[in-house]
Amino acid sequence: MTGDSRKQQDRGCLFPGCDRSPGWCDAHHVWHWVKGGPTGLWNLVLVCRRHHVLCHEGGWHLARGPDGRVRAYRPDGSELVLAA
After folding, report:
1. CA 46/CA 53 separation, integer angstroms
2. Which of 31, 68, 73 shows the shortest CA–CA distance to 81?
């Protein structure tokens, strides 16, 4: 698994509503590696630096829904839903 593989698959930050290109992004473990999450493509998503910090230091978390799309959850557990 390489960072380039993740960048080709995601094409930018997957935090809902963000449009940062892959060059601004880092790979983020959906299931954190400290808690046993593997470093496989299915468990990694690209997020820009701002959203990576929100996840690690701001209490937000990301999850993949049954449709494979990434969902963002606030520190209180409520899902971030964007207007259509």
Report:
1. 13
2. 73
Tokens 């899902």 locate to 79
Tokens of 47: 């997020």
Place of tokens 């978390």: 61
Judged on CB neighbours under 10 Å (0-12, 13-18, 19+), 72 is buried
Q: What is the pTM assigned to this prediction? A: 0.81
**pLDDT tens digits for range 64-80:** 888 888 999 999 999 99
Q: What is the pLDDT of residues 10-32, one digit of tens each?
A: 689 999 999 999 999 998 998 87
State how far the Cα of 70 lies from the Cα of 84, in Å rounded to an integer: 16
What sign does the dihedral 42-1-38-76 (CA atoms) show?
A: negative
